[in-house]
Amino acid sequence: MWTKVDILQCIAVSLALIMVLVPLTRSPKLHRIICLFLGVIAATSVQRVSQWAAGSSTPPWLLGYLWPAGVGMFPLVPWSAYLLMGVWLGPAIFFQQPRSQQTLRAVLAAGCFIAASTFMGSTQTYDAPFVFSRMGWVMIGLAACCWLGKPVRGTQWLLEFGQLSLWSYTVHLIIVYSILGSLLGPRFSPAITMLWMVGVLCVTALVVRWRAKSLQRKAALRMMPAT
Question: Residues 53, 143: one domain?
Fold first, then answer.
């Protein structure tokens, strides 16, 4: 249980790799290019890693970071590709650009990812076509956010929820798997279980929103000049 590799461990290792590359590259441009290259490698090497993992004697707790070994569903290959490619995509889309340019660049990136996915063959569930097509649709959503410029009225809580998404994700995992999993289990239908999960997420979102506002108030008080 302590060695399960879920999305949080994948994010942690991916971010650690990104940070380790900073002093090694010493150039922001080179750092972004290397991260992009590693992201493409992570997205396109699923078949090779699966063939290696089939006959590997690597301990399961370590193998789980590279391939699903019965203790997790988010190994570094291919899921780290999203973070690694994002290191290059972020500055390429947002760096000192007006809103119209950000929207256009996000749409162009989306088109490139989706077009690339159509020419790729798939041999595994989460192979390169899945990663590239998913990234393309994420870019479309990002383009819509760029075009809007600011949250639509009534959706501010979604932004606040996203800013603390790792915290909220951890909380809802603990509640769903440790509490709801033992209480509900096979006793209720999937529809009832889904309603419980939606309820937990809504409550978690409200708590995160309250916490975000509390942090904002404390930050504002610290920035106020002494009188």
Answer: yes
What tens digit of pLDDT does each residue of 132-173 get?
A: 999 999 999 888 888 887 766 766 666 666 666 666 666 666
What are the pLDDT digits (tens) for 93-119?
887 778 888 889 999 999 999 999 888
Report yes or no: 35 and 88 within 8 Å, Cβ to Cβ: yes
Structure tokens belonging to residue 226: 């002494």
Three-class SS state of 72: strand
Statement to judge: residues 194 and 123 lie in one domain: no
Which of these three, 149, 184, 204, is where a domain ends? Answer: 149
* Entry pTM: 0.71
CA distance linking residue 86 with residue 36, whole number of Å = 8
One domain for residues 119 and 158: no
Domain hosting 96: range is 1-149
CB 74 within 8 A of CB 109: no
Lowest mean pLDDT among 76-80, 82-86, 98-102: 98-102
Radius of gyration for the chain, computed over Cα atoms and rounded to the nearest angstrom = 20
* DSSP reduced 3-state for 5: strand
String of DSSP letters for 101-121 = HHHHHHHHHHHHHHHHHHTS-
Residues 27 and 128 in one domain: yes
- Say whether both 19 and 123 belong to one domain: yes
Q: Is the same domain home to 202 and 113?
A: no
